[in-house]
Amino acid sequence: MCVILLAAFALRLFRLGAASLWYDETVSVILAQKDLLALTQHTAGDIHPPFYYYLLHFWGRLAGWSEFAVAFLSLFFGVILIALVYRVARAWTFPSPVERGRGEGVGVIAAFLVAVSPYNLWYAQETRMYTLGATLGLASVYFFVRVIGRQSSVVSRQSTVRRDVIAYAIISALGLYTLYYFAFLIIFENLVALVWFIQKSKSRITNASRELRITNASRDLRVWISSQLATALLFAPWLPIAFRQATDPPVPPWRSLIALPTIFIESFSALAFGQSLDPAQTWLLLIVLAALIVFTIATDRATLSTYHLPITNALFLFAYTFIPLTLIAALSFWKPLYHVRYAFLYAPAFYILIARGIAQMRELKIDLRRYASSLMLGAVVFGAALFFSASNFWFEPRYAKDDLRGAMQYLAARWRPGDAVLINAGYTYTAFEYYFDQPIAARGRLTNLATTPSRDGAIVLQTGSIGGGASLGWGDPASDFYATTADETRAALDRVFAAHPRVWMVRLYDTVVDPDGIIRDYLATRGRIIDDQGFAGESYTRVQGYITSRDGLVALPTRATRRDILIGNRIALIGFEPATAPIRAGQSLDLVLYWQAREPVNLDLHLYVGVFDTNNKPIAMRDELPIGNALGTSRWTPGEILRHPIRVRVPASLAPGNYSVRVALYNPRTNEMLDAAPGEWIADTGQIDLTPVQIEK
Fold first, then answer.
1. Distance CA 534, CA 672 (A)
2. Which domain holds residue 169?
3. Where are the beta strands (DSSP E) in 113-209?
4. Are 623 and 533 in contact (CB under 8 A)?
5. Residue 213 has pLDDT above 80, yes or no
6. pTM of the model
7. 671: which of 44, 252, 315, 680 lies 20 to 30 Å off by Cα?
């Protein structure tokens, strides 16, 4: 068993933190970084309870906030889950001393299945509450069995029953504080308890009086009710918040109704082979697994005789996983609740069920040696499916997390002072906070934030849910989501376009908060796109940049310094600003270049910018497309003047003194620099000596 745990740990450690955090994960981190009071207040206005965020808060303060560190908490509970599956499978299978070895075997098989499960790998590397929820769920059901079963055991002591009730109540309450979907597991437990009490009431008890029978039934029922009341009492402080979140969510609806067959096929496939393998590719293997489950239930005679609970068999394990899923599917007709990730909460029993089926097959009076080659081939095929699913999870772009790290780094590299940035209030700001490493001068709602350009940082405007319900965000001015109208949004964008020369938009779930494309249409018709870059992930994240005027400049601004240098006989650098640029070491050098195409250009040239010392040695440099990838030099209209802000990071170790900035255009296909007409501002290298720079302490 130790070997399985070590191998599972190594498997989960592989590429941990290598991928970007996706939106939900950045929510986890941003919430966990708050103080406990602010964290609690924020989660009270969100859709998930706070317990996982509390744990991540303390873990992050200890281990740091890198992608690796924050995901390690999920890995930890993912490994704990394997150990718990082993312990529970062993306890629930052939528990008598004579058959203990058989129970040990089922425990080892179940633990191995969880260890190599791509479904478990997925959530053991995700900075969310799912491995914690599944661990608490299995522990809750484990103590549920003990509470129900030990009541009828003649060897049970009252103190033991009381201890199990307390453990059950605490764990179940923590489960509810972790994920509201835990409630479906508690409903399952109560259904099982109801069946068990009915079964007991109908059973014949020999050598016992009617009075004793009634007394025992009454005692058993009181114990169970007390366990439920204790759980409810522990969760009572949060219950009003949970009820409001469930009945009147403060977020816009983002799920749609999914057909019942799709729910069960998708969930079954994920349980078996993970989310990174298409069920259509493994349908034959899924049929084999389904047949194994039917066989296991049909032939299972094992009971938890130690606890006198005959319903805890293969059918119980099947119901553990699929009754909560059925409840979710049924309630989805009222309000869509299903996502394949939530099936993970009920997954542990699935692997114990499969392990019991394998164990029961071994006990058939069949000479398995006659089928050794077929069994070996089957094991290889199933192993290959698991391997390809895990490989897809780690390496296949189709199953990659949304690359929000790449998107925000792309934005940070192209944002310039004076630009405005539009982000979705609810669906983007956490990723922006976590990954955007440039200074922020102001951030607030698009509809009420003054849009004054700043050289000290970005102006970040959070867009609202256009046409959203009046109760969205519960009217809280600090809510992640807020309702607005199309007219309010257009009026706010008018102010932004009047104040800022360029606007950037991070598109993520914008079809949820702007289903009619009001903002997209405004930017496309009122602005001129200069940059457009997509990023990996199922949400199709995009970063787009716009000039806030569709017409180019007709003259060089009076504040700019004129140069009018022709490059490659087709493009002219006609000026720049400011004329001089004193900055401190470690800061960024910001300049604005003004370009004019004199003749059409048939490719997108690249710009080289360098800061040189007095010995003509480059000490800082940058390479980029002028204007942007959607408005490269091949798209410039001859005669129009285009504004191009540039930024170069100056090393903090740079000694104070006099330096110079040089620029050049070059052909990216050949890396050859375009010639500039000889003149006063042309360096020996052919580069344009733009302006002196004074580096200060």
1. 29
2. 2-398
3. none
4. no
5. no
6. 0.91
7. 680
